[in-house]
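Reviewers of the previous submission asked for a worked example of the structure-prediction workflow described in the proposal, so we include one complete record here. The input consisted solely of the amino acid sequence. No template or homolog information was supplied to the procedure at any stage.
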Amino acid sequence: MCGRFVLATPPATLIQRFGLTSCFDYSPRYNIAPMTNIVVIRQNTEGERTGEFHRWGLLPSWSKDPSIAAKLNNARGETVNEKASFRSAFRRSRCIIPGEGFYEWKPVDENGRTVKQPYYIRPRTDGELFRFAGLTERWTSPTGEEILSCCIITIGPNAVMEPIHERMPVILSAEDEATWLDPANNDPEMLRRFIRPADPANMMAFTVSRAVNSSRNESPDLIAPV
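From that input alone, the workflow returned the following structure tokens.
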């Protein structure tokens, strides 16, 4: 799964790196949790890319109960084209969710009891960003309230993640970016080739402070090795 991640890169950098026509302004965040607004990158039918705010926790357009979003921050890549909550967005409304890195927790023994040790996973090259494969939805309530939401697709682990956790986010390469974002690509079999573990050579992981366990904590210190 992917339950917390980091985005401290300035909006101007995203605009340049992804060729965006616009991007919502935001502050650096070092402990992004589900059900908060996050930056997603989308592309329209004219090929223009924008950085938008969507709530992290997918709310399908057909849902009668908006609370379902709290359970849909991740979509399993193995079944993303089959599950009713995700299959429509997989074909017509994909996005990239940029991040400097993400957190995962590994159970460890500490003085005879099991505790969860947080790890931070980031690109091996300084200054690089992960491109998390995501889906978006637009939901409208009976009274006209509109919610834009998203989720991150996950897959089984690569060699870096396997000792830590059984799941990891799907991370796209720069070469995958254009095809994934193109709304004209709606062939599920073609799209499924992107649903794979990332190259472990491009990633690194290390233990970090347990202060990250609380989503209320926000500081660059959270991503420092311990």
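Helices lie at 11-18, 87-92, 177-181, 188-191. We consider this example representative of the routine output the project will generate in years two and three.
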